[in-house]
Specification:
It is a single chain. Helices cover 60% and strands 2% of the residues. The protein has 14 helices and 2 strands. Strand 1 and strand 2 form a beta hairpin. The termini are far apart.
Length: 308
């Protein structure tokens, strides 16, 4: 049990970022940066809507415009099961089977799949380096790459980058080429911003929307045709989030893990849930997600996992 603020970081540095990638990533997500990773992954998924092929599909399925909270909860809980229990566990295997089952109905390009995966690697590091109580260590960055490479392989994604730098280059180049206006993407964006605002008292909704927009970069705002917040608003919001990180640095280290399933924003399963029942079972043209698996079964932990 860590008793000093940097003791767990020392533990992480004693682990091997290849062999112990899942353990390092779990320590990073559940102990060191649970709030930051949750916010970063929310914004990671959100920015993918600015790629019209992703945003249009999500609008057509209505999963993120008609059942936004459930779609959010299912995504969080399925990804969380893999982090908490590991790729080779029954829960981890079930979560991957569910992810692949939902994704299989759509003919999505491998390029879009890799881009979505890259957001999971790049955006948490960028967020934590800017707003966390400390910067992400090299071991944590390396372990994040290994974790999401493994997830991508289980999802059938091809030509996955091999390093953080390659993931970052892929993300930046893909966004420069593909971010552009699409009215259906804007529908999904508006629904997601409304969901985030709904987690707080209603009178705060306009302030929270403005605060969220103040954290977004200019080319993402342009793609959705949002009016950029004023420089003063951006400065105030970003400084406030940085101050939160500095305050966390002064706190004692977390002694118990905090997984994403414990986040107050996950509202739809307060009575409990079964991993195998999360998400949807779409047919072509009904429901879905911007990433799909390839083939009729996936390989998890060295063995084939059949469809549900």
């Amino acid at each position: 049990m860590a008793t000093k603020r940097f003791e767990r970081l020392e533990e992480i540095r004693r682990l091997d970022p290849e062999r112990d990638a899942s353990e390092i990533y779990r320590l990073m997500v559940a102990y060191e940066f649970p709030w930051d990773v949750a916010r970063a992954l929310e914004l990671a998924l959100y920015r993918t809507y600015a790629v019209p092929s992703v945003g249009r599909l999500l609008a057509e399925t209505a999963e993120l415009t008609g059942r936004t909270q459930k779609r959010y909860d299912d995504t969080v809980l399925l990804l969380d099961a893999v982090v908490e229990h590991g790729f080779g566990s029954d829960e981890g295997r079930t979560a991957i089977r569910r992810i692949n089952g939902m994704h299989r109905s759509y003919d999505i390009s491998n390029e879009d799949m890799r881009y979505v995966l890259s957001t999971f690697v790049v955006m948490p590091k960028r967020w934590i380096d800017a707003y966390g109580w400390r910067r992400l260590s090299g071991h944590e960055t390396h372990a994040s790459v290994v974790h999401y490479r493994t997830l991508g392989q289980h999802m059938g994604i091809k030509e996955i980058p091999g390093s953080y730098e390659e993931f970052e280059q892929l993300l930046d180049a893909y966004e420069a080429e593909h971010f552009r206006w699409d009215p259906r993407s804007r529908e999904v964006s508006d629904a997601t911003l409304a969901l985030m605002a709904s987690w707080y008292p209603r009178p705060l909704s306009p302030l929270l929307r403005t605060g969220t927009l103040a954290l977004l970069d200019d080319h993402l705002l342009r793609a959705f045709r949002y009016e950029p917040p004023s420089p003063l608003t951006r400065s105030v919001v970003r400084r406030a989030v940085r101050l939160r990180g500095r305050a966390v640095r002064l706190l004692a280290p977390r002694t118990a893990p905090h997984f994403a399933r414990q986040n107050p924003e996950v509202k739809g399963y307060r009575g409990g849930y079964r991993t195998e029942e999360l998400g949807t079972w779409p047919r072509p043209g009904v429901g879905g997600c911007p990433v799909r698996a390839v083939g009729s079964a996936e390989v998890v932990g060295g063995s084939e996992v059949s469809e549900r």
